[in-house]
Amino acid sequence: xxxxxWIGLLAATLTxxxxxxxxxxxxxxxxxxxxxxxxxxxFGIGILMWDVYGxxxxxxxxxxxxxxxxxxxxxxxxxxxxxER
Amino acid sequence: xxxxxWIGLLAATLTxxxxxxxxxxxxxxxxxxxxxxxxxxxFGIGILMWDVYGxxxxxxxxxxxxxxxxxxxxxxxxxxxxxER
Lengths: 85, 85
Description:
The first copy, chain A, is an all-alpha fold. Helices cover 84% and strands 0% of the residues of chain A. Chain A contains 4 helices and no strands. The longest helix of chain A is centred in the C-terminal third of the chain and has 25 residues, at 60-84. The first copy, chain A, is elongated and about 50 Å long. Chains A and B meet through helix 1, helix 2 and helix 3 of A and helix 1, helix 2 and helix 3 of B.
């Protein structure tokens, strides 16, 4: 495996795993006021499109990474929805 | 251009542009308390790695999209740093 591929895998691991501490903080604090609805929805639909893209290209890494991100992002979306009504 | 490529471009446009309304909200409210430092730093380093990956692969679209995301993410990071000290 070459350096470029390793850097791509490192990048994917970092951007996906970054949502784990964020989802934990949001869940524990039950606060998501500082998040923009536009950000959450555009980013969420974008991640869903990455999943479709990965599925069409039969690229398991893209599908797995983006499904994990979407699951963690859902914690933020649901917390904001529940606490802002 | 085939459907798969269009979906990939749509996904990239959505995930990058989602940070524009977020950066505007954060800048105007001067509040980023609900963001996790771990998220901001891991995601930021991850986006920087995507930039390196795009540069190594000579892929202008990856470099441009991730540079824009990084610039917008910086607004959130600097706001959190300035308002939490």
